[in-house]
Specification:
mainly alpha; 0% strand
């Protein structure tokens, strides 16, 4: 049942909504909207995972990290009310990703990472193919080698390896700590743009990076017991 749930919810609904929404939104707004993932995860974990309760420290740190992502892209942020549908799709993707992560943390302790990853991706692929056919898009294969190379990279490095590591870490790490990947990813992308594409960071970039680091550190830290 967990394999079916993760396949439909994470690899089907989450990716389907994100890829659809990204067609209409710029990358900065997409990153901000998906950075709500830790907030969703904290809420679901509080309700569904024993002992993983919301604390003032955890909530404050999560909000601070989210504000850090907003700061990273705040200068270029443009909101268009005509694109509320795609924006809702990205947030919906974050909700589904959080639900899948929490469910895996609660029920996947005895499953080997590969045993969960491989069939779940197959279920997700079937789900997306069915959605494409139902929507009239059909299934079209790329015609050039460069596109196949990109797909191969995303399939192996971005999917198989990434989720094997993710599901393995879920056995020992908290689901909240892993959800902060969504706030580190845009910061890393900006850093790579600086190194390889000569993109110039701004003051807001620095502010955002500091807020993200401070927020994650606060959310994952534990208060020291008082000594008499």
């Amino acid at each position: 049942m967990l394999v079916l749930f993760v396949g439909v919810v994470l690899f089907g609904a989450d990716y389907g909504l994100i890829y659809w929404g990204e067609q209409f939104l710029d990358s900065g707004l997409t990153a901000i909207l998906f950075a709500t993932l830790p907030l969703m995860t904290v809420a679901f974990a509080h309700l569904y995972i024993p002992g993983d309760r919301i604390t003032a420290r955890k909530l404050a740190g999560t909000l601070l990290a989210f504000l850090g992502v907003v700061a990273l892209f705040g200068e270029s942020l443009r909101l268009d009310v005509s694109k509320l549908g795609p924006m809702a799709a990205i947030i919906g993707g974050a909700v589904f990703a959080a639900a899948a992560g929490v469910a895996t943390k609660r029920h996947g302790a005895t499953l080997h990472s590969a045993t969960l990853n491989a069939p779940s991706m197959l279920v997700g692929g079937i789900t997306l193919a069915a959605a494409a056919i139902a929507s009239g898009e059909g299934i079209n294969l790329p015609a050039d080698a460069m596109t196949w190379s990109a797909i191969a990279y995303l399939a192996i490095a971005g999917s198989v390896v990434t989720f094997l590591v993710y599901f393995s870490l879920l056995k020992t790490w908290s689901v909240t700590s892993l959800s902060f990947i969504s706030v580190f990813t845009p910061a890393i992308a900006l850093a790579l743009g600086f190194v390889f594409l000569d993109e110039r960071p701004t003051l807001w970039t620095a502010v955002g990076a500091v807020l993200i680091l401070a927020g994650v550190g606060l959310a994952l830290s534990r208060s020291r017991p008082r000594t008499s």
